[in-house]
UniProtKB/TrEMBL annotation, chains A, B:
Lineage of origin: Bacteria, Bacillati, Actinomycetota, Actinomycetes, Streptosporangiales
Chain residues forming the annotated DNA-binding region: 42-61
Source species: Nocardiopsis codii
Record Gene3D superfamilies: Tetracycline Repressor, domain 2
Name used for this protein in its record: TetR/AcrR family transcriptional regulator
Keywords: DNA-binding
SUPFAM superfamilies: Homeodomain-like
Record bears the keyword DNA-binding: yes
Domain HTH tetR-type: 19-79
Alphabetized InterPro entries for the sequence: Homeodomain-like_sf, HTH-type_TetR-like_transc_reg, HTH_TetR
Keyword DNA-binding part of the UniProt annotation: yes
Amino acid sequence: MTTPLVPFGKSRGERADAARNRERLLEAARAVIAEQGTSQVTMDGLAERAGLGKGTVFRRFGSRAGIFRALLDDDERRFQERVLSGPPPLGPGADPVRRLVAYGCERVPFLLEHHAIARAAVDRSHPTPAGAASMTQPHLRMLLGLAGLPPAHLDGLTVQLTAALEGPLMLYLSAEEVPELPEPGAPHPLVDGWRFLVERLVGG
Amino acid sequence: MTTPLVPFGKSRGERADAARNRERLLEAARAVIAEQGTSQVTMDGLAERAGLGKGTVFRRFGSRAGIFRALLDDDERRFQERVLSGPPPLGPGADPVRRLVAYGCERVPFLLEHHAIARAAVDRSHPTPAGAASMTQPHLRMLLGLAGLPPAHLDGLTVQLTAALEGPLMLYLSAEEVPELPEPGAPHPLVDGWRFLVERLVGG
DNA sequence: ACTATAAACGGACTTTACCCCGCTTAGTGT
DNA sequence: ACACTAAGCGGGGTAAAGTCCGTTTATAGT
């Protein structure tokens, strides 16, 4: 009976129509965002645009913020793969300090690009903005540990550095203040700041 | 005609009934928060409780988040005074590094105490959570400058350290993870982390 | 006191996130 | 093929944020 083994990433138990509708909804969301910005994304609007019922939208994503989280997760997964198994210094192989720096250098542009969506994914009922944080936090923790940070400070510093990296783009920058990211490779104040921070913190 | 010169802090131009109603509403808000938590604060509920119309609530505070911002500002002003003109090392007089450390030591408990309200003051339509940030950011910037940080890194680091200090309590800690703050003076991981961060950053 | 006026008030109205529950359908075992 | 069942679907219903505009009222100038 040609039972396909893991036809897509979805871990067994999601029906084919459900998966199709999810894709349809995400595409609709991307279209609305591109055309009119995140603030114009409404549950009813998405449902109509995708030719589905409103209830379906909620079943798939749980909440409005959930839609943006799902959009982020898509790109987030790719980012995560580069961190976990890509080439150094972002991936494994380089020494911890260089990996920390590299992580920030890649993460800041990533967040700048996803700024609007990431902000829309913040939800007062959920503590962490996205799956985003759940990747950054353990990764930083591991690297900081390897870099020889005193264990007594590890927990507090992990949380603070996570906030230092992701917080600015969640909390302290408005949409208008996010300029086009300059030419790739050009210096960005947040990247510079991060490098300086890490090197002073664990390099000395 | 007994025109009182600045009878209260309100800087001329706010009518007496407006001021009275503002107080009434803030009191109602504090009561609801104490009884049922921030999530149960609704604009209609507040209006009814204060015996006013809903339009008035919006006129006074602009938005739901605005109410929480107003509540914070009250305490924030007191905090600010201690920073600007209180005794060192929090106030002026000590050297910049000690003032930075002291700022974190006082700020973390402050934010822990106001955690629920501070989170409720976050609003996706407004970039910074409260007047909170507008105090922390320039203050840190000044101290970091005095502490001899290279000007090239000053802007980026200011934003990041602000996020490092305030971000954890906005974004990365859920309500359940905020324990009663231990006895005053007892060590807190975030305070320790902050001290370590600052000393490494500008002390070395 | 009286009037003018700008601010404040109130509550109906609109929009939108989110809930609910009866109906439909894809997947599975025979 | 067929029936069975759990998952998915739809859209009407609720509650709460935010807007609007006609009415009321505090204050200043005379």
